[in-house]
Design a protein that fits this description.
This protein is α/β, with parallel strands linked by helices. It folds into 2 domains: 1-53 and 101-161, Zn peptidases (Aminopeptidase, 3-Layer(aba) Sandwich), CATH 3.40.630.10; 57-99, no CATH class. The protein has 3 helices and 8 strands; from the N terminus they run αββββββαβαβ. The chain has helices spanning 2-13, 102-121, 145-151, and strands at residues 18-22, 30-35, 43-49, 69-71, 81-82, 96-98, 129-135, 160-161. The protein has a 5-stranded mixed sheet with strand order 1-2-7-3-8, sandwiched between helices. A 3-stranded antiparallel sheet has the order 5-4-6, with no helix packed on it. Strand 1 and strand 2 (30-35) form a beta hairpin.
Length: 162
């Protein structure tokens, strides 16, 4: 978990987001990111988590959990493994990417980062101050999240939580 938190902090920092690892000794850290927007008077916090369910090897019949696998449809629809396409091959709506914790909840983190990248590439400024909380213990019920947030409440003011 610590290695994942460090990597996520690096990914945020590459985008100009100030980061801190908020930790309670002996527990996985909450990755906190902040991006202030000049002139913004409102703020939004995005909450996501970066941990995943334990791997059950019996559920990974023809792929490995830590290696992304692309299919031409869902597994339930008998989707077959297909090779990763070369850019600029258009994405097909039926395609599905499978990997451990891809949807719950690492995919949404990547989607948020991709959205920030797209805004930056188009030179579209944010209209709000942005804060990001990435929890490393959600799949375990976030047993230390409240204590961590209370210990760092001065960082967490915002007008909305997503």
């Amino acid at each position: 978990i610590q290695r994942n938190a460090t990597k996520l902090a690096e990914m945020l920092e590459r985008r100009g987001i100030q980061t801190q690892l908020l930790a309670i000794p002996g527990r996985g850290p909450v990755v906190f990111g902040r991006l202030d927007t000049p002139g913004a008077t409102r703020g939004v916090i995005f909450y996501l988590h970066y941990d995943g369910q334990p791997v059950n090897a019996t559920e990974w019949v023809d792929t490995k959990p830590f290696e992304p696998a692309l299919r031409n449809a869902t597994i339930q629809a008998s989707g077959k493994l297909i090779p990763s396409p070369e850019p600029p091959t258009p994405y097909q709506d039926e395609w599905r990417l499978y990997a451990r914790s891809a949807a719950d909840d690492k995919g949404p983190i990547i989607a948020l980062l991709a959205a920030l990248d797209a805004l930056h590439a188009q030179k579209i400024p944010l209209a709000v101050n942005l804060k990001i909380l990435l929890d490393g213990e959600e799949e375990n019920g976030s047993p230390n999240l409240e204590r961590t947030l209370l210990a760092h409440r001065e960082l967490l003011g915002a007008d909305a939580l997503i």
